[in-house]
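Input record, target 12 of the design panel.
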């Protein structure tokens, strides 16, 4: 606009108006740059640092905790199966049996299953210890989110206040421009532009409306609800809808279920030991999980509960 005013003549009414409008646009642009810079420093940068730093660490630890929980469930199922076999092997034999060799085999099987139970119990204790340790690490990280939430809430309030001041400043610039254009009605304009300029001028004896102060009401502090360990974060985690999943044209495999598994929610598929299901993976899916199909039923299944068949 300034260049056009110099071409048309800065002394002409149109040239003078172009210079005034151009100067106001320059001031609006400077205010916008200041607002973007302030928003980036006070809000966007702290939020980005949190998502790429602390939150990424928390998500990693929660994933490890979930894997520890699956390992613990598998150990419990293995111990249960071993105890059932031990009880069956230790059943009272038939004393009318005329073949003593069967007594020897029964005693040997009972001893073997007793050793298997001891191994399963030892493995369960180790897995339980690892799960408890990981649960404590995850709990401490999640407790630290409370102070982080307070800091980000303050940054968000500053962002809203900065944006309010930006729009109030822009509004004031436009009011000043409108006043300048209205005061130039004595100059000679051509055609409709004269009518438009005069229509925007304030009535005699009146002053332009005052700009309301850009202030924010006091915002009460929002209490932070601590995150519960084991409950998925619905904001950070997306939910799989099994009805929308379609198996790939190739890449499906058969798998045998090693242990019983109870589905945690509607997106998972409950499993029974020794049954056969069809499994496949989807792009971007957690490598510790697969999509399992059994008849018309479909859902996520943990890899550690499966024996993949060729």
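The sequence produced for target 12 reads:
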């Amino acid at each position: 606009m300034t260049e056009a005013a110099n071409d048309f003549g800065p002394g002409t009414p149109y040239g003078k108006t172009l210079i005034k409008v151009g100067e106001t646009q320059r001031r609006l642009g400077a205010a916008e740059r200041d607002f973007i810079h302030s928003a980036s420093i006070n809000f966007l940068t702290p939020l980005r640092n949190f998502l790429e730093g602390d939150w990424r660490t928390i998500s990693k630890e929660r994933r490890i905790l979930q894997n520890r929980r699956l390992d613990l469930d598998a150990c419990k199922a293995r111990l249960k199966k071993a105890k059932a076999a031990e009880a069956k092997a230790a059943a009272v034999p038939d004393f009318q049996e005329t073949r003593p060799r069967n007594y020897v085999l029964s005693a040997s099987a009972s001893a073997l299953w007793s050793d298997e139970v001891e191994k399963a119990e030892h493995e369960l204790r180790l897995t339980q210890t690892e799960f408890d340790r990981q649960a404590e690490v995850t709990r401490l990280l999640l407790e630290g989110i409370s102070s982080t939430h307070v800091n980000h809430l303050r940054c968000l309030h500053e962002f809203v206040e900065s944006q309010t001041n930006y729009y109030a400043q822009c509004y004031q610039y436009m009011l000043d421009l409108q006043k300048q254009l209205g005061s130039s009605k004595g100059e000679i304009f051509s055609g409709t532009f004269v009518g438009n300029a005069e229509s925007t001028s304030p009535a005699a004896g009146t002053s332009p409306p005052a700009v309301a102060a850009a202030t924010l009401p006091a915002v009460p502090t929002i209490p932070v609800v601590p995150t519960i360990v084991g409950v998925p974060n619905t904001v950070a985690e997306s939910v799989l809808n099994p009805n929308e999943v379609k198996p790939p044209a190739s890449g499906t495999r058969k798998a045998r279920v090693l242990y019983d598994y109870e589905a945690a929610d509607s997106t998972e598929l409950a499993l029974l030991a020794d049954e056969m299901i069809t499994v496949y993976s989807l792009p971007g899916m957690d490598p510790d999980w697969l999509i399992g199909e059994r008849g018309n039923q479909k859902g996520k299944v943990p890899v550690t509960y499966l024996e993949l068949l060729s």
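Helices lie at 2-8, 13-52, 54-89, 101-143, 145-183, 192-199.
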